[in-house]
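Lecture notes, unit on binding sites. The following record was shown on slide 14. It pairs a sequence with adenosine-5'-diphosphate.
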Amino acid sequence: SAANAFDFGGPVLCDAHHYGEGHINDTFVVWREDHSKRFILQRINTDTFTNPVGLMENVCGVTRHLRAKILAEGGDPARETLNVIPTLSGSTCYLDADGGAWRAYDFVEDTICLQQVGSEADFRTVAETLGKFQNQLADYPASTSETIARFHDTPNRYANFEKALAADALGRAKNITSEIEFIHAREQDCHVLLDQLAAGEIPLRVTHNDTKINNVLIDAATGKGICVIDLDTVMPGLSAYDFGDSIRTGANDCAEDEPDQSKVHFDLHLYEVFAKGYLSTAGASMSMAEKKSLAWGARLMTLECGIRFLTDYLEGDHYFHIARPDHNLDRARTQFTLVRQMEEVFDQMLEIVCPDNH
Ligand code: ADP
Ligand code: GN1
Ligand code: MG
């Protein structure tokens, strides 16, 4: 019924398998019956996004803004931003009889979506594309509402972890004593970025907030950055969040859920590659203090994500999609290994984003 609710320009066939590797929404591909065109059909995760209609208003506001920027820059908005397909009755999402909320986008063709970094060139492209995206949103009203409250409020994520630990609903705390110690030793770190914001040292911007490298599509033929996707969390935030989450997912040679910690290596060279690309497009409007905050972003987004995975592990894996038992535990451990390695080279990380000034 969801596939038939949208204005796809004719009848469609739906592939019942999940598409892609997102952890939150349920993503499917539908084809026009004559195979002339395909689309993305997504069931929005309404546990995460409790107001799907408001969420789609935000997505439409952002894509409208981006479309105008792309046109002004002589680009092709059909490929360079998401295009929301309306329902047959003109709405931005379809509410099914079971309370599910669905939306549809044009499929951005002839692109690749990295799960891990294959080449330096691709990682630099992701960086430049995200820096450009930040510039394009520079004049988007920062009063735009939060689609998930306190999304990157790291101290609050820490507090939620403490609650889950105290409840220990599934008796799993006994399996994670060293991880608990690791988190507790870093309580003060959790405050660094929000303290800098509160002190007026770094600006509040409109950011993407979920800049995993698989949320940037790259042109398969030319290697150019094409489209930033997964716009659900575009809202007020810090450049350090976007920089940091890409470093978390891209500046290493392992999967996010690598179970063998001896295979997890933070790659300072890839960090530098990304930093140069990002600053080449977004750096002009950034102060020294904001540039320095990027290094903290890498550390804190990785720590925060590890805390979130471990909280979900304690609470019974209800937030992130999992594919095996202990999946969230493996993911958390990988994040903590990366954090430990970043801490060892943190001076160099600061020097790279802010030479001679730290
Ligand atoms: P999630 O929030 O669950 O991560 P995403 O919106 O990121 O969901 O979509 C999951 C995956 O689907 C992406 O990583 C990408 O591979 C693919 N995808 C999403 N939207 C498009 C699109 N418009 N064109 C092509 N691929 C897409
Ligand atoms: C989720 O939606 P996806 O898979 O791109 C999550 C991010 C986490 C990431 C960890 C809305 O991202 O915050 O960093 O998983 N998105 C949401 O892989 O919670
Ligand atoms: Mg995604």
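Take-home: Residues 94 and 102 are 5 Å apart (CA to CA).
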